[in-house]
Amino acid sequence: MIETKKASMSFTSKDSEKDRYLADFSDLEKNLNGTASSSLHRIRKDALSRFAELGFPTTKHEEWKYTDVKSLTQRHFNPVRSGSAVGLKTSDIKRFNLNIPKAHILVCINGHYSKELSSIGHLSGGVKIGSIADAVKHDAGLVERHIAQYAKYGDDAFTALSTAFLVDGLFVHIPDGVVLDTPIHLMFVSTGDAEFVSYPRVLIVAGKSSQVALAESHVYLSAKTYFTNVVVEVALGENAVVELDKVQQDSLEAFHVSSMHVHQQRNSNFISNAITFGGGFVRNNIMAVLDGEGAEATINGLYLGTGSQHIDNHTTIDHAKPHCPSHELYKGILAGKSKGVFNGKIFVRKDAQKTDAKQTNKNLVLSDEASIDTKPQLEIFANDVKCTHGATIGQLDEEALFYLRSRGIGVDKAKDILIYAFASDVVNKIKIQEMREELQKILHDRLEQSRVFAKESSTK
After folding, report:
1. What per-residue string of b and e applies to 207-243 under the rule 16 or more CB within 10 Å gives b?
2. How many CA atoms lie less than 13 Å away from 453 in the CB half-sphere?
3. Is residue 192 within 8 Å of 2, Cβ to Cβ?
4. How far apart are CA 456 and CA 451, in angstroms?
5. I want to staple 57 with a disulfide (CB 3.0 to 4.6 A). Which of 61, 78, 337, 356 is the partner?
6. With 50 as the cut, is the pLDDT of residue 221 above it?
7. What pLDDT was estimated at residue 331?
């Protein structure tokens, strides 16, 4: 179902972890079928050189202070050479559709676009959606203007690594003035028995005065231990409106590193709601640059940790121009032995007067062994701004719990009601009603699973 190829070199424990990826890249070059001279491959090679210089981060790096990547870097995941969906049918992935009505569905299998499993309805107004590999061939000028222009790989090893192995992924282009009424669902499916790594790339270009709603989901079938290193670039033209809601339901043995880079022009509006359910090791990076006067960004997140999950959310909202509001709400629920990390930075440049930025991080810690490290940051270089931030860490309200139990509600049900109410602030911000209702069901299931897992762990 998946085709992987082991590196032609062998390694010992003394070899550098990054050398394994350098060998994988050498194998990649041998299979490019004449495209090694393309401008995209020049970007790949430049990104690889930067990765070789940087190496993987350690906890001595400030941005990785609370997240140790050794559990990831000490393994060697075989790169996926193709995304063949042989043996998979649409019915196999139907349950992952998030109940979004009439959506255009783009499916990636292990990072590679699957035309057979995708479902694209009628498109008008010059809208283009599909494989980024095809877009490189048929819309080279458009892709070259945007690819790797926002996701800078100079300072981040994982972005550099993902860019070096950029082969396929998903492409969305909404031309000027087009309002797409039908949502687009970007579905990434991991499947297979071997331990593998995929590097899906997403490029979303929303033209002037355009509008689009997208969902991004990460799910798995037979795969258990795998590594997804995804990079998403979103470019919003003047007055464009883009909502991108992400739902991550990877295997609890999976490694998931995601970097989303957003660039906004004048009076554009970007909305992100990111919900993390799965993954054993998770790092989510979101960086939005408000590079036009009047641009607005809303970035929300919800993360649920159980067992030994490690979930790290890093966000940066860069106010580069005046009169730009931003809103950020991240909520975490940590149970079992899970660990959460939140680092939210609001950066206001010298000329970004009249900035209005609000950031909030709230966390529920449900067990003695769970923990959260939260670090809200403000870096302000303008003098006429309104910026607020705050972080809280707490447990369930005992008075509220007592109130519910006094009404005859069992202790487990009462806890679920309070936890669900805490989490629903983020879920309810998703505008697509059917998707919102589906996520409410998933949330209920996850809370039940977390409680069962906790009971099983306590008896061991």
Report:
1. bbbbbbbbbbbbbbeebebbbbbbbbbbbbbbbbbbb
2. 19
3. yes
4. 9
5. 61
6. yes
7. 97
